[in-house]
Amino acid sequence: MGRSRRSLLRVAGGTIASGAVGTFLYGQSKRAEPTGSETDALVAGSLLRVAREVPGAAIEAHGSAAARRLVLNDLRRPDAVALADPRLFVGIANRATLFATNALVLAYDRASAHARTIERNWRRAIESERIAIGRTDPELDPLGYRTVMGLRLAERTTEIDAQRVLEESRILPETELLSVLEGGSLDAAFAYRSMAVERGLAYRPLPARIDFSDPARAEEYASVTYDLGEGSIVGAPIRYGVAAITEDGRAWADRLVASGKTLWESGFTVPPEYPVRDPSLEATGSLSE
């Protein structure tokens, strides 16, 4: 990279300041090409490519927390919603079906001068002033708050300064993060494994103790939290859920749940017991549970 990470942050700050007001509240979105369908699906940014492969709905993608706010504030009235954290269905659906899992990784640019360092020593890489790291906004999507919580977990067993890494990394919308990486403005980015696989990007797996992929480590993950404003999000294994908000959305939701082959090919994991109904929505009305 020709510029330091701090100089890139100043550039990013100028870009955000000149953006639309909606960017602050909801992030930027991606829409699929018109399908002629009267069914609308609102999905997590990391699900966009898979959702586009599922016929029967017009797709719009945002960070999951942002998507939730769009529905709660009556700015969108989708027929189906698919999110990267089923707890975010609280307030918009009474039931959801879990259909896939994922892992937090460090995706990187093979052409970066620092690619070898990133692959060999990810801890050193994310703290280096010379290596530009990207992440997403924890206020807008689970990838963002899982990155924050993952770094806090890592800090307990390594010499990583989580706060310093967070302060010096560049925040980008989930739907744009890896495009910026591919364009050469970042050396690496915290992303989901599926996001890297879909784009053919190199990625450095992170230890299971911080990547939120292992259900057996649920208690360990739960030792960190992130305050989302309306509730405290407790660390938990990554799970994707879908809910049909209207009868028109039910058929599309069923097709998404049945798209196991596409999900596997895109880097998601589909546990053998999936799909299953998420019982937590029936037990609580709080994001914190």
Protein model, in words:
- The strands form 3 sheets. This protein has a 7-stranded mixed sheet with strand order 1-3-2-4-13-5-14.
- The longest helix has 16 residues, at 142-157.
- Helix content is 38%, strand content 19%.
- It folds into 2 domains: 32-100 and 239-283, Periplasmic binding protein-like II (D-Maltodextrin-Binding Protein, domain 2, 3-Layer(aba) Sandwich); 102-227, D-Maltodextrin-Binding Protein, domain 2, CATH 3.40.190.10.
- The radius of gyration is 18 Å and the shape is globular.
- By secondary structure, it is α/β, with parallel strands linked by helices.
- The protein contains 15 helices and 14 strands.
**Content-based structural category:** alpha/beta
Which band does the percent of strand residues land in? Answer: 15-25%
Percent helix: 25-40%
CATH architecture of the largest domain: 3-Layer(aba) Sandwich
Assign the CATH superfamily of the largest domain. Answer: Periplasmic binding protein-like II
CATH topology of the largest domain: D-Maltodextrin-Binding Protein, domain 2
Level-1 CATH class name of the largest domain: Alpha Beta
Quaternary structure classification: single chain
Estimated radius of gyration: 18 Å
Mean pLDDT across the residues is 87
Q: Specify the biggest β-sheet.
A: 7 strands, mixed
Distance between the termini: 42 Å
Tally of individual domains: 2
Topology:
Layout: H1 5-17, H2 21-26, E1 30-31, E2 40-44, H3 48-53, E3 58-62, H4 64-72, E4 80-83, E5 97-100, E6 104-108, H5 115-120, H6 122-127, E7 133-136, H7 142-157, H8 162-168, E8 170-172, H9 177-182, E9 188-192, H10 193-199, E10 202-205, H11 208-211, H12 218-221, E11 225-227, E12 232-234, E13 240-244, H13 247-257, H14 260-265, E14 276-277, H15 280-283
Parallel strand pairs: 2-3, 2-4, 7-8, 7-9
Antiparallel strand pairs: 1-3, 4-13, 5-13, 5-14, 6-9, 6-10, 11-12
Helix pairs in contact: 7-8
